[in-house]
Amino acid sequence: MNMMEPLHSSMNHPTVELKSLQLCDREGTESADSGIGDVDDLPVPQQIQISNITCDSFKISWDMDSRGRERITHYFIDLNKKENKKENKFKHKDVPTKLVAKAVPLPMTVRGHWFLSPRTEYTVAVQTAAKQPDGDYSVSQWSEIIEFCTADYSTAHLNQLLQKAEAIAGRMLPFTVFYRNQQREYFQQASPSYRSRDAQCRRMLPAVKDNSGSHGSPISSKLEGIFFSCNTEFNTGKPPQDSPYGPYRFQIQADLLFNHNTNIYFGDFYCMYTSYHYVILVLAPDGSKGDVFCKGRLPALDRSNNCFLTCTEEDDGSLSFCHAQDVILEVIYTEPVDLILGTVSQISGHQLMSLSTLNAKKDPSCKICNISVGR
């Protein structure tokens, strides 16, 4: 079995960050499986506790009897995604999930973006082991199985995404309106099938964001808002006539949603196995429910000086707006919007459903929009 020393192996360290924990390779797994057929009377881990959970790490500790503790040389940690929950044993043909570490003081940190993903449910079980002179192992019985869920991206991770997005945003182009496409029924008086409308059908209401984009984005399935677009065609300077979301378009003057009273936040950067890259921005009126949600969770942007969406005041007091040319912006406005503030009309283009981002999955292999933590 391929064993790797932890980053710190001194017993004087109460917490050990196991950056060099690794999955057992298949060849080593098979030989190890044949060498640990007998369960020894080593102490069984009990009362497992998971703490300090991030998007790609967690701390683990447990209690165990003192009898036989001095014989323990290693810990075996079986980590599985909850949806793939299986018996705790070494795998032969499947990709193994066994993590191996030398016995170190508890709690210890399990870290690794190559096997831990953000916002994912896992099961974990532990057994203690004693390495024999011939290289085989005697092991304890398995502990109970504990379930836990990894966390969202932290603001530090989102800042990494932000920097990657800034690198490809391109030059800024002027625009004057935000727009939102939907089916005709969405804008009609009787539209009970749309929960993002009020009973009188006079307002668009915030709805919970879906799971599109980066798996670790803290806004997915949590932030409430209304999606708008603002990208323009390069040759006309106007919104495109095609849309994946419906042939009817609501347009509203940009300054009604984005002004000196609006805070802007970076929410996500992703692609869907295509050359297009999407940036999600959040527009939240200062002090609003959405603003409170975003503060401390998302990187705040300077409304007049950022790479994606700007609002600047001209000499005459009017506001002018620009958007990034080389990314597709998805703008979430966190408050209700009255239909009377804008206009609804039919577009002349097509519904390009292939461009829909509804629950779209991020390409985990893209080097442009991924960072060095779980996808």
What does this structure look like?
The chain has 375 residues and is mainly β. The protein folds into two domains: 134 residues, Immunoglobulins (Immunoglobulin-like), CATH 2.60.40.10; 201 residues, no CATH class. The chain contains four helices and 23 strands. Strands 13-14-21-17-16-18 form a six-stranded mixed β-sheet. Strands 4, 5, 7, 8 and 9 form a five-stranded antiparallel β-sheet that branches. The protein has a four-stranded mixed β-sheet with strand order 1-6-3-2, with no helix packed on it. The N terminus is likely disordered.
Q: Beta-sheet strand percentage?
A: 25-35%
**What is the radius of gyration?**
26 Å
Q: Judging from the principal axes of the Cα atoms, what is the shape? A: elongated
State the domain count.
2
How many strands in all? Answer: 23
**Average of the residue pLDDT scores:** 82
* Largest sheet: number of strands, sense, barrel closure: 6 strands, mixed
The spatial strand order of the largest sheet comes to 13-14-21-17-16-18
Number of helices: 4
Low-confidence segments, given as residue ranges, are: 1-35, 85-96
Question: What is the H/E order?
Answer: EHEEEEEEEEHEEHEEEEEEHEEEEEE
How many angstroms separate the termini? Answer: 28 Å
> Level of helix content?
under 10%
In terms of structural class, how would the helical and strand content be classed? Answer: mainly beta
